[in-house]
Structures are given as C-alpha cells and as structure tokens.
Design brief:
With 626 residues, the chain is an alpha/beta fold. 28% of the residues lie in helices and 18% in strands. Helix 6 packs across helix 8 and helix 12 packs parallel to helix 14.
Length: 626
C-alpha cells in the first residue's frame, strides 16, 4: 500500500512537472511566434513609379510619355510605403533588359524592335545581368551607383530589397558589357555545331538561321512608328530555341520570341545530365544541400546564375523573385538557393510556380522560401469576387496546403494579373476589400500588393504592346490613380479623390494590423463550413475563420456580396471554446480591429459560442476577443 501511495505521489509530481514544462514550452513557442512577424511585399514597377507625365500616347517615347527613375524613390516616398505596413519592396525591372532607345554613347548596343516587346521592352528579357536598366538612371554612366544608393535609401527606410532573376531565359541579344573580367557571357563558349551539350548555355538548330515571327492582326513593332532597325530581320545563326521552349527557328508571334531558352543540362529528350538529389533530401536544410553539391560537376549555366545571384547580394539586395522557376530543374534550385542562403541566411526567395503538384518539390528540394498561391487560392478568390465562385471552396484549399501554408504567398494583383479595378476583373476596387482581408489574415504566409492597388488603379491605358486591364510592363506609360498619390513627387496623396484616400487608408490599416498581430503567426481553424450547416442566413458569399495565439484570439468574417446586408448568429464550435478556455455562461466583448468602431458580444451557452453579427455589403471584421 505504501508503495502504491508513493507511486501515486510520484506520478502527481511528474504530472505537475510535465504541466509546468508544457507551460514553459508554450511560453517559449509563443515568444518565437511573437518575434516572427507577418511579412508584406510591395511590388513596384520601377520605371513607372515616379513618372508624373500623363500623356499616355500609345507606343510613346520617353520624351513623349516620360519615365520614372531610381531617384524618384526619395526618403519621403519610401517612408510612406513603409507606413503602409510594408516590410519588403520588390523593384521589378531592375536588371538591364532590351529597350528601344539609343544609348550607344554609353557603349550600349541598340536593340532591334523585331525582338523586343514594346518600346520600353520586357523586364523579363534581360540583356546584361551585371548592370541595371539605363532608363532608370538620371546619369546613365553612373546607373549602378544610383541603384546602390536606392538600396541604401530602402534599407534606411526599414525596407528589405527584392529584385528579379529570370533563370529560364535571357534576351535574344544578350551581351554583358559590365561583367567582371573572369566571367564569360552566356553562349560565349558554346559549341554551336550541336543542338545540345551539357555545358552549352543555349540549345541550337545547327545550320538554320533565326527568322522573325510572322506578325498577325496587323501588328507592327512600335505601332505606326518605324526605326531603321525594324526590318523584319534579326541575325542569329544558328538559331537558338525560344524562351518558352519552342524549337522553331521561326517562332510564332505568341511565343516568347524576344528570349532564348537557357540550357540547364537537360537533353532534348528530357534526360537530366547531372546528379540527382538523394531521396531523403526533402528534409535536409540548405547547409546539407550546399555540402551535397561541393565537388560535383554541374552544367555551366548553373554556375553563371549562381554567380549572378551572389553579385546582387554583394550590392545589398536582400532577396529575389525567380521568374518561371518551374521551367528550371529543381536540382538547380537546390544548388542555387543553398549558395544564396550560405551567403545570406535571411534572403527572401520567392518563386513563380504554377503547378500545384510541384509545390512541395520546389519548397523542400529547391529550398524556396515562398511560392505564388496563384492556381488554387488566387484563382478561387478571383472567381468569388466576380460572383462566380463560392467561399465554400476556400477551406479545402487551406486543408490541402496546411503542411506548406507558410510558404504560399498571397496576392490579389501583380504585374502579370489584371488590375482588380479593371473591367476584366471586378471593375470596382471596393470588391477587393473582403478578398484582401481574407488573403492577409488566412495564413502565416506573406501578403503582396502591387503598386497602385491601394488607390484602385484600373489598368485601362492603351500603352502599345499588349492590351489594357494590366498596367503595361512593355511601354512608357503613366499610372493615373497612382500619379494622383505621387502628387508631383510630394508622395502625399494630395490629388487623390476621397474614395481613393479611403481605400488607401483601408490597406494601411489592414497591412499594419497583420504585421503586428501575434495571432496571425499562430493557429488557424476554419469555422465557415461548420456555420454553413448550423447557422441561418449564412451562405457561400460569407467566409469565417479564426486565428489565435496565447495572447490574441481573432474571429475573422468577410462578406463578398456587393449588394446584400447579412445578420446572423455566428457559432463557435465546442472544440474551439474548450481550446480557448472560454467559460460557460460568460459573455465576452469582441471589437473590430480595422476601424475600432464595431463591437458585439460572444456568448458561451451549452459549450457553444454565439456571436451576433451584422455585415454590410463587402464589409469585413477582424474581431478580437477582449
């Protein structure tokens, strides 16, 4: 009996000790979550940001339509971006790409309109990876110094700097005049007598010359304007494969004809001509990946792009957005990103990957920090905003991605997608409000917005190449709503309409809340599908979920309906009531954190929480339990 009593006492002591240990662990974990803040990326198309010219002539020149400069990102401008709630700024279009402007006085070759899209050129047809777009400099001769100064100003404003690297393809006329002496150009040492060689940088069609695409629908480079270089010819022999994978010596008009495909050591038959990662490397950290590639022979293109990334890190860049990353083998990313992380462990690595079946490979094997959540979450939200889809589709997406939710960056706009306010998307910036609340609070992943989104830019300008609804990335153009915020470079919103001011205030409130919330780096639970079955007057235009940490409990509710008010009693499941340790029979005040004006009461009865909610059209609440 004494032995039994001693055993019971010992178990009680151990139990108390375990509970105390759990509490200490929870405190430690919570401290870690508090230090890990939500991140917000502000994508800005660099040459458009500071342009105050409002002419917007289709295919207009710099002199006609104007262009923004690095210097337009003044301390005041960067401070205002930071105050919006931004942690990282992605300067799109920084590396030197083809442009239709004469810079020969600076030793830069002219670019042929027959292999350049638009007058200002595509930022994804890079011509020289060791310098910056001359359009962006006040003094072209010192353009790299102006970029370095921009990086410093950005850092001084508390912003991390991201730029693009485009590994899948380069400009058809790639020629670096700025590379270090020990660096060879892409293709410089290629054996052009064969279609493929492991250390060739490009793929070739031996004995065939490149031909400019046959233009369709009365298209002409530069519109009605002509230059001597626009003659339907571009000398390239032998012809190289085109960036999107076309093997034709005369690519189609809708191919990426202005670019050439980079060879990463994959034969034309699809065989990988390099070492493969061991099966267990999904769980290995970047240091193990770095060690794996030591001493191994890799294709020359791998080395060239690694050197490019390290070069930009040396200039102070804090991370990269990788264009069309899924078109490049995941083994290269293991090699590339492990090298980047060895130099800067906190580098922000964001990749454009659209195939959900590849997500986990590119995160775990390719060591990507973040991927676009385009095909699942963005496409679903867009259909809901347009009144076609149901909010019921969102919880299953979260369930499917729960093991990688932190790595799936959320956005409503970027340079490739239609502007929210455009006629092709929602036609009204207000319709984006519930979507932005959901995207910004749904997971622990970063949120991204595109410059001008916060003031309702609609992308309606006819700039030249391409079509409206997307702000042009190919031509010199002004961005009207954004220009009203720029206000002749005072960057104070002085020309914004009241509606635009209120919209920017909404974004500012939302993004700042997300970067300061502990709950949003904590736990998630769906309550939408539960309420679909339990709650009257609750339908597939509404969405609700909860987020929490030990010191903050949030109930988030959004109304995607642009026409109808809703009033209902939102229910909090018994499991959540127990988890949150809410007391039976007690009433808890909840207050909206966006505007601090709406409040209601959470009542606990029979183990279930009941919350009376009144929602106006397109209204959202981030309700914090007091």
């Amino acid at each position: 009996m004494r032995l039994i009593k001693c055993t019971i006492v010992l178990l009680m002591v151990l139990s108390i000790g375990c509970k105390q240990a759990r509490k200490e662990t929870e405190k430690t974990n919570d401290k870690n979550k508090i230090t890990r803040k939500k991140q917000v990326v502000y994508q800005v198309f660099t040459r458009l940001f500071g342009n105050t010219n409002t002419t917007n002539k289709p295919w207009g020149t710099i002199e006609e339509n104007g262009v923004g400069k690095f210097n337009d990102f003044t301390p005041k401008a960067l401070s205002e971006i930071k105050k919006l709630g931004v942690t990282h700024i992605w300067y799109t279009g920084v590396p030197h790409h083809g442009v239709i402007r004469d810079y020969t006085a600076y030793g830069i070759s002219n670019d042929d309109p027959d292999v350049v899209k638009g007058r200002a050129g595509s930022p994804y047809a890079v011509k020289d990876y060791y310098n910056v777009n001359p359009d962006l400099a006040v003094n072209v001769e010192h353009r790299l110094e102006e970029f370095k100064a921009l990086v410093k100003r950005s850092h001084d404003a508390g912003l991390k700097v991201i730029i693009d690297i485009v590994p899948n393809h380069v400009a058809r006329n790639y020629k670096s005049i700025s590379k270090p002496e020990d660096i060879k150009d892409f293709g410089e040492n290629d054996d052009v007598s064969v279609a493929y060689n492991k250390n060739n940088n490009f793929y070739y069609n031996p004995n065939e010359a490149f031909k400019v695409p046959l233009w369709e629908n009365n298209y002409s480079p530069l519109g009605k304007d002509k230059t001597p270089l626009e003659d339907g010819k571009f000398i390239e022999k032998p012809a190289k494969w085109t960036g999107n994978g076309s093997r034709l010596s005369q690519p189609k008009m809708n191919d990426w004809y202005e670019t050439v495909k980079v060879n990463y050591g994959i034969t034309p038959e699809g065989i990988k001509d390099f070492n493969k990662l061991p099966n267990d490397f999904e769980s290995k950290d970047y240091k193990k990946h770095y060690d794996f590639w030591k001493g191994k022979t890799v294709p020359d293109s791998w080395i060239k792009f690694r050197n490019i990334a390290l070069y930009w890190l040396d200039l102070g860049v804090d991370g990269f957005r990788y264009d069309m990353a899924e078109m490049v083998p995941v083994e290269f990313w293991s090699y590339m990103n492990s090298s980047v992380k060895m130099k800067n462990p906190s580098a922000f690595l964001l990749a454009e990957v659209y195939n959900p079946s590849l997500y986990r490979d590119y995160i775990k094997k390719g060591k990507m920090d973040y991927l676009y959540d385009k095909v699942q979450l963005y496409d679903t939200i867009k259909s809901i905003v347009q009144g076609k889809g149901k909010t019921d589709y969102i919880p299953p997406i979260l369930e499917n991605l729960k093991d990688i939710e932190h790595h799936m960056l959320h956005f409503l706009e970027n340079h490739d997608e239609q502007r929210l306010s455009s006629v092709g998307f929602a036609g009204n910036a207000e319709k984006g409000k519930p979507a932005m609340v959901v995207l910004a609070t749904l997971t622990t992943a970063p949120t991204m917005i595109y410059f001008g989104q916060e003031v309702g830019e609609d992308g309606s300008e006819n700039a030249g190449f391409g079509s409206p609804t997307r702000t042009s990335i190919f031509d010199y153009v002004g961005v009207p709503a954004h220009q009203r915020w720029v206000n002749n470079k005072q960057f104070d919103g002085g020309q914004l309409t009241n509606k635009e001011k209120k919209l920017r205030d909404f974004y500012k409130r939302l993004l700042n809340f997300t970067t300061n919330s502990t709950a949003l780096t904590g736990n998630y639970q769906d309550i939408h599908l539960y309420n679909r079955n339990k709650t009257d007057n609750y339908n597939d235009k509404l969405l609700s979920f909860v987020r929490w940490s030990t010191d903050q409990k949030l109930i988030i509710i959004s109304n995607f309906d642009a026409e109808n008010n809703y009033q209902f009693s939102l229910k909090i499941p018994e499991t959540l009531v127990l988890n949150w340790q809410l007391d039976e029979g007690k009433n808890y005040k909840v207050i909206d954190q966006l505007y601090k004006q709406y409040n209601t009461v959470l009542k606990i009865k029979n183990g279930i929480g009941n919350l009376e909610v009144k929602l106006k059209p397109l209204e959202s609440f981030i309700l914090k339990i007091q």
